[in-house]
Amino acid sequence: MEVAQENGIYISDVAKGKIEQLFEESNLDETYFVRVSVVGGGCSGLSYKLDFDNESQPTDQVFEDKGIRLVTDLKSFLYLVNTELDFSDGLNGKGFNFVNPNASRSCGCGESFAV
């Protein structure tokens, strides 16, 4: 898999730490990566999906930021250009969220968006 250098998907330091913790707890080896995708649904029309995967697909776009491999399919990437994966552990909600400059609006929970 060739790693893209710019106009990618990025990860915050906090999200990197959480992903490394999850990799360790799940006993995943270096063949696994974080798969980020966009699917139809949610209150704003499109939803983010996040998984661990170790099988690449022909149209995958591969990015690496802070030592974490982030992979998405080509269709999802059109919605995710320059998006940052973040993690919040605060009172307003715990979990991964996406800082997406392409979203024209997003729902209150941060799990769905529209362009």
Structure description:
This protein has one domain: Sandwich (Hypothetical Protein Aq_1857, Chain: A). 17% of the residues lie in helices and 46% in strands. It is built from 2 helices and 10 strands; from the N terminus they run E-E-H-E-E-E-E-H-E-E-E-E. The radius of gyration is 14 Å and the shape is globular. The N and C termini lie far apart (29 Å).
Structural topology:
Layout (H helix, E strand, L loop, with lengths): L2 E2 L4 E3 L1 H13 L7 E8 L5 E8 L6 E6 L2 E6 H7 L2 E8 L2 E7 L5 E2 L5 E3 L1
Parallel strand pairs: 1-5, 2-7, 3-6
Antiparallel strand pairs: 3-4, 4-10, 5-6, 7-8, 9-10
Average of the residue pLDDT scores: 84
CATH topology: Hypothetical Protein Aq_1857, Chain: A
Indicate the proportion of strand residues. over 45%
Shape: globular
How many H/I helices? 2
In CATH, the homologous superfamily goes by the name: HesB-like domain
What string gives the helices and strands in order?
A: EEHEEEEHEEEE
Q: What value does the Rg take, in angstroms?
A: 14 Å
Largest sheet: 7 strands, mixed
The helical percent reads 10-25%
What is the first-to-last residue Cα distance? Answer: 29 Å
Total E-strand runs? 10
Give, in spatial order, the strands making up the sheet with the most strands: 1-5-6-3-4-10-9
Structural class label: alpha/beta
Report the CATH C-level class: Mainly Beta
CATH architecture: Sandwich
Whole-number total of structural domains: 1
Low-confidence segments, given as residue ranges, are none
